[in-house]
Design brief:
single chain; alpha+beta; four-stranded antiparallel beta sheet; 6 helices; 13 strands; 28% strand
């Protein structure tokens, strides 16, 4: 009968083999841990502090990207960690063509700069010395382009006259009294461009004490139309309708006045 004990060379060798395998596995795991740790240090500690590998500027074709980066404070040594997006976005608004800016950071070392271009709501003419230059005005009442007309032929922008301007330059903000007026023009340009195209010129008439009203000069018609500063799609539709009606009634109409809410007209004197 066996006593249940093992003697001498009857002892198994498995524990020693397992111990050697465990040590090998631990070394492999330790090596993997070191590699992963180094990768994490590189990814989260070093790479975000290195110079950017890619910068993409979009939204305004042909814009001077070097000027954009300089204004945003982004240089050859800028990194993901060093860029503060909010102040950089605000700084880019100093560019006359830029209406809004957004900077997106892609970890660990890429950024995108999205720019929104100002769009013209109207145009005017400005003088520099003895020369006259066209100037574009957007819906914020900003003159953002002088001398270089960046508009399409189909935009049909009305010409604004009567502005009191001493000096005109790109980036110039017009007085706040005009803000609502140019915002309405922008809305018309977006929602009813065919109505705005029917107007060749809008003259601003300043009142003696405060505010202003408008004189509209419809295209291809020898009649001027007086309206309040609250120009709208409804106002223009009513104006065009009355022009058609009154042109049938009389061909000598010189001016139509809508400022009181009801149309009155004045005929040209014929001697």
């Amino acid at each position: 009968m066996s006593s249940g004990y093992l003697y001498g060379d009857e002892l198994p060798a498995q524990p020693a083999a397992h111990s050697a395998g465990d040590r090998k596995l631990k070394r492999i795991l330790a090596l993997i841990g070191v590699i992963l740790g180094a990768e994490l240090i590189w990814l989260f500690g070093i790479s975000p502090c290195m110079p950017l590998s890619r910068i993409n500027v979009s939204g305004i074709p042909g814009i001077d990207e070097a000027a954009v980066l300089a204004l945003a404070g982004i240089g050859s040594h800028s990194s993901y960690m060093s860029i503060n997006t909010k102040p950089a976005e605000e700084a880019l608004l100093a560019l006359p063509l830029v209406r809004s800016a957004r900077i997106i950071k892609h970890f660990p070392n890429r950024i995108e700069i999205h720019l929104e271009r100002r769009r013209p709501a109207a145009m005017t003419f400005a003088s520099r010395g003895e020369r006259i230059y066209p100037a574009l005005i957007d819906g914020d009442g900003m003159i953002y382009s002088v001398g270089q007309v960046g508009i399409r032929k189909d935009e049909n922008l009305p010409v604004i006259s009567g502005l009191i301007l001493e000096e005109v330059y790109p980036g110039m903000k017009l007085p706040r009294i005009y803000n609502a007026f140019f915002a309405r023009l922008e809305t018309l340009h977006r929602d009813a461009p065919e109505l705005l195209a029917a107007i060749s010129e809008i003259k601003i008439n300043h009142k003696n004490y405060d505010g202003f009203d408008l004189t509209l000069y419809p295209a291809h018609k020898g009649v001027r139309v007086r309206v309040s500063d609250d120009i709208s799609e409804e106002t223009l539709r009513y104006m065009l309708l009355m022009l058609d009606v009154l042109s049938v009634k009389s061909r000598n109409i010189e001016e139509i006045d809508f400022r009181t809410g009801t149309a009155s007209y004045k005929e040209a004197y014929s001697g």
